[in-house]
Amino acid sequence: MKRERSYRTEAIIIRRSDFGEADRLLTLLTRDYGKLRAIAKGARKPQSRKTGHVELFMRSQFMLAKGRNLDIVTQVELIEPHRVLSADLVRATYAAYVVELLDSFTPEEERQVAIYELLRDTLGRLDTSDNVRLVARYFELRLLSLVGYQPQLFYCVVSGEPIEQADQYISPEEGGLIAAAHLSPAIRARQVSAGAVKVLRFLQTRAWDTVAHLQLRDDLHRELEMVMHYYIQYLLEKGVKSAEFLYRLRRETISLTQNQPLSNDSPNML
Amino acid sequence: MSNVLPKPVLRLINEFGRLPGIGPKTASRLTFYLLRGNDAGLAADLSAALAELSENTQYCTACHNITEQNPCEVCSDTERDQQVICVVEEPLDVVAIERSRMFGGVYHVLHGALSPVEGIGPDDLKIGELIGRVQQGDFREVILATNATLEGDTTASYLQMRLADTAVRVTRLARGLPVGGDIEYTDEVTLGRALEGRRELK
């Protein structure tokens, strides 16, 4: 959509950095114009009218003016602050992960309402759900589908035959599951258990309301995370910074708080 | 430009250019201002100040603030309440809090805040030092005065978790309307907190 000189849109703040004396440079995922960058002048001063409305991960209504290089925030009003998320290190780390993936997979200034809605819903879930790992896995599979990398989980990508109920291999290079019988040494792939395949299919095909109540064993959660991180890192051809931060947080805090969960309300969340 | 100017001039331009917010044009303008010597002794004063900056400053081993002496003036001041500790992100935050003249305790400078986005973890900050200090020392209260940003809030909640098994009281700075603030333009989070923390007028 072409932008007028001055335009209004709903947006989520996916990145922000300091700029000049008291300004903030924001990367916004807007509902109507895709991803774009804008300057919020004076937003670091407490007295600014914008300050409390342009914090990371917030969803706000923006009035923007087209600038020569960067657009300028003229008015902004908060819609959804994500209060829980922004005060909890684990939830904030997952939010950072979600936003980093989205940023890596989407081009600038391309309107994709489905992706916007996915991010909006995912941040909302990270704010309220106690199963943040499941929220992240659901997001990954949905995002891959929306940007054209949906993994094939029902048919072997080499032979085209239906996948049996057994341990399989998954290859980001080939775009999905490969039956053990059809795997050749030339294909880069990773083993994935029958149980994990079942969960991945469930996440890929069902709505969140159905998925939300899924209770998984801890080791299955770990496997799903490893499989998805492996798949995504291959596609991006680089490491995901916030995923590495998550691993590190686990190492550092688990060694410190052996008998004390990181988050009081949701013990196994990390 | 590079072959026309003498080496010392070029060198200073380059060094200025390494400072944040200074581009090549500003760097050469500053250099030539010093070179022309309109302000007698400025260049000499500046170089003396720079030398002193790197020679005579260190970090206080107790609070990790920048100081001339170790332990710093605040930490060694017996007039101050050594049982109340105020945790801040940066040394400049200490200056800001001192300006309020409402705090008479000691400080702890973290040198940053936790940030999943920037990849700043607990081990990159003076968090272990703070926990050790609180566990070993005789403290009544820890005031968490990190910024009211996402990073500051996550850092505060992380510290609260880490300090939960000590007997010390952990508090967080209040949040509310800034002086000169207009209710109409205040975000709902701030306004909600302002309502929560309202005071009876006496």
Describe the structure.
The complex is a heterodimer of chains A (270) and B (202). Chain A has 270 residues and is of the alpha+beta class. Chain A folds into two domains: 76 residues, Nucleic acid-binding proteins (OB fold (Dihydrolipoamide Acetyltransferase, E2P)); 126 residues, de novo design (two linked rop proteins) (Up-down Bundle). In chain A, 37% of the residues lie in helices and 21% in strands. In chain A, the strands form two sheets. Chain A has a five-stranded mixed β-barrel. In chain A, β1 and β2 form a beta hairpin. The longest helix of chain A has 19 residues. The two termini of chain A are 40 Å apart. Chain B is of the alpha/beta class and 202 residues long. Chain B folds into two domains: 50 residues, RecR Domain 1 (Helicase, Ruva Protein, domain 3); 142 residues, Dna Topoisomerase Vi A Subunit, Chain: A, domain 2 (3-Layer(aba) Sandwich), CATH 3.40.1360.10. Chain B contains seven helices and six strands, in the order αααβββαβαβαβα. In chain B, α1 crosses α2. The interface between A and B is large, with 40 and 31 residues.
Tally the beta strands of chain B.
6
Q: Based on CA inertia axes, which overall geometry of chain B fits?
A: globular
β-strand amount of chain B = 5-15%
Percent range for β-strand residues of chain A: 15-25%
Distance between the termini of chain A: 40 Å
- Biggest sheet details of chain B: 4 strands, parallel
Overall spatial form of chain A: elongated
- For the largest beta sheet of chain A, what order do the strands appear in spatially? 1-2-3-5-4
Name the average pLDDT of chain A.
90
Radius of gyration of chain B: 22 Å
Which sheet architecture does the biggest sheet of chain A show? 5 strands, mixed, barrel
Largest interface, by Cβ-Cβ below 8 angstroms: which chains and how many residues each?
A: A-B, 40 and 31 residues
Into how many domains do the coordinates of chain B divide? 2
User: Distance between the terminal alpha carbons of chain B, to the nearest Å?
Assistant: 69 Å
> Can you tell me the CATH topology of the largest domain in chain A?
de novo design (two linked rop proteins)
| Strand arrangement, major sheet of chain B | 4-3-5-6
